[in-house]
Write a structure and sequence with these properties.
This protein is an alpha/beta fold. The protein has 8 helices and 8 strands; from the N terminus they run H-E-H-H-E-H-E-H-H-H-E-H-E-E-E-E. 36% of the residues lie in helices and 16% in strands.
Length: 243
């Protein structure tokens, strides 16, 4: 017969891990990164930039945004931010509507500038060629680096603006025991969580639409708590998980 579980030891090693991973530490800020819902126009190389970059939520994306909003309806949300892109702002608004909050727009939270330097009257396929793009996609699958793609925002530039933006938000809430929600994008979530865990990949995992990711912050410490939570998308009517 198993006996009762003993109390955890309170030695120096336990205290070190508490500090390193911000477990039970007062004044810790919880940064909740939420990917936007599905957009109505896929962000594909053969789409005109004006159609693909700032596409609105699809019907399914609006339902995903409603579900993630309901997920946070009974949880504390102390501050709410989003990128200025419609799909992210509207996802953030679905969360904020339950708390009387409107997302504060931070432009540097927008998604990676894919093919941003393609001439405005061309698609990426027209500028670079279909076969060339196919080869780039295979390289991206292997290397997971934005720098594979020409005419695109450089990886280091992208990560710097994202990390600086989120660190600025953290500084604004320094030493608050607060939950801060940031509605943003898959590349943005990878850039910041990848910075926290020091991965070499620009895309080290694939966030689902309206998935939830949590980073804890206090002082100089940052601790990744969870990735890709989609339990709110599993409903009695079925799964609403998409990528």
């Amino acid at each position: 017969m198993l006996g009762p579980v003993s109390s955890p030891q309170r030695g120096p090693a336990s205290n070190a891990f508490n500090e390193a991973f911000l477990t039970g530490i007062e004044g810790t800020t919880e940064i909740v990164l939420v990917r936007h819902g599905q957009q109505s126009v896929p962000n594909l190389p053969n789409a005109k930039l004006g159609d693909s970059v700032d596409a609105p939520l699809s019907d399914l994306g609006r339902e995903q945004a409603r579900l993630v909003g309901e997920r946070f309806a009974t949880e504390r949300v102390d501050a709410l931010y989003s990128s200025g892109m419609r799909r992210a702002f509207d996802t953030g608004a679905a969360i904020g509507g339950h708390h009387g909050l409107e997302p504060v727009v931070i432009d540097d939270l927008q998604e990676i500038g894919m093919f941003r330097d393609v001439p405005r009257d061309q698609t990426a396929a027209e500028a670079l060629g279909i076969d060339y793009l196919a080869g780039l996609r295979k390289r991206m699958a292997r290397e997971r680096s934005w720098d594979v793609f020409p005419l695109t925002e450089p990886s280091a530039e992208f990560q710097k603006r994202v990390v600086n933006a989120i660190e600025g938000i953290i500084a604004r809430h320094a030493d608050e025991t607060a939950r801060v929600v940031i509605a943003c994008h898959g590349g943005v979530i990878n850039a910041y969580t990848g910075y926290v865990i020091a991965t070499d990949f620009d895309m080290f995992f694939r966030p689902a639409h309206t998935s939830v990711h949590v980073v804890l912050a206090k002082g100089h410490n940052r601790a990744l708590q969870s990735l890709n939570d989609t339990h709110h998308l599993q409903t009695a009517e079925g799964s609403f998980v998409t990528y």
